[in-house]
Amino acid sequence: MDTGTAPLMHTPLASWHRAHGAKLVPFAGWEMPVLYTGVVEEHLAVRERVGLFDVSHMGRLAVRGPGAEAFLQGLLTNDLARLRPGQGQYTLALNEAGGVRDDLIVFRLGDGFLVVMNAGNRGKILGHFRERAVAGVELADRSAELAMIALQGRAAPGLLAAMAPATLGLPRFSIGEFLVAGETMLVSRTGYTGEDGFELYPRAAGATALWEALLAAGRDLPAVPCGLGARDGLRLEAGYSLYGHEIDEETSPWEAGLGWAVKPDKGNFIGRGALLELKARGPRKRQVAFTCAGPGIPRQGCTLAVGDQEVGSVVSGTFSPCLKLGIGIGYLRGPAGGVSPSGETPDAVLGVVIRGRQLPVSPQRLPFYRGTAASAGGVA
């Protein structure tokens, strides 16, 4: 019996990462850079200036044909009928029990739709779509054909406008074709950091040239290459969900605070009936975001407790370079886990257990940190 593991996949920028000193780690079946110079340094570069991320490991699926909209409406929670050509929206694909298969971004293009999915769920979602494809729907996996580069930070609009002036007029959560560094490509004003920025979709063969052109254009800022470590801390400060942490197949959108991306009145979609039943019954668990009251960094799996009673666990946690303290998101069991919305009971306070020591926490409203993405128009 073969007990070996599958070889790691590589993005079109893998050789560049290796040649420029990135620390490479396995992630969702890919070899990806986790950092270059340091997680905190890269994190703050994005908050203060601009950073560049290779996100080519994510999946990109074109959905075309006369039945494309109806097909996607039956698979996804948000309402695609609200989109005009060039607009995008955050949405979810559910299982029949109302749990989250994946969270996705869908753009309406002139000839159909582009669906962007998480790297770890690419095979699952492609299979899910293909199993349900009907006449009048054409699915084309463009993941290998196109790379995906995220340019993020308050200086990103000016940097990209110097190379492609028309991108400055692109609204938040919109997409269009632009000539950048000599190549016409799709560019969307989206990202996963809480800052304003763009995601660019060059041909895979042109990814390295574009990457180097962006770094060269931002040399005086300076623009810096960033890894997955900074990306995770940035998204957590911004309060964005990460699959396998805040959301999974056992978690409903209501429990994850993503009900705004669910439009039950649009018509039927997979998981709709179960989702309505779950909403009527009330949540099985409740999400809580918190900051630590003292030194300590919460991590996924840490226990949440009230006194000596375990009431839940952490699903994401890190040290926030902007707030300079530990932050985390967890789930409390039951509708409230025995804890009031303020995080307190009549005689005890919510705490997190870190290395055997229980540390009081202060529940917070998300986001922990509000970046420039909000001033660029928010999330559709």
Question: What features would you describe in this structure?
Answer:
With 380 residues, the protein is of the alpha+beta class. The protein folds into three domains: 14-58 and 145-237, Probable tRNA modification gtpase trme, domain 1 (Gyrase A, domain 2, 2-Layer Sandwich), CATH 3.30.1360; 59-141, Alpha-Beta Plaits (2-Layer Sandwich); 283-364, Elongation Factor Tu (Ef-tu), domain 3 (Beta Barrel), CATH 2.40.30.110. The chain has helices at 14-19, 39-48, 68-73, 122-131, 156-163, 207-217, 228-237, 272-281; strands at 23-27, 30-35, 51-54, 59-64, 88-94, 100-109, 112-117, 138-141, 149-152, 175-180, 183-188, 197-201, 224-226, 285-292, 303-306, 309-320, 325-333, 350-354, 357-364. The strands form four sheets. The protein has a six-stranded mixed beta sheet with strand order 10-11-12-9-3-13, sandwiched between helices. It is globular, with a radius of gyration of 21 Å.
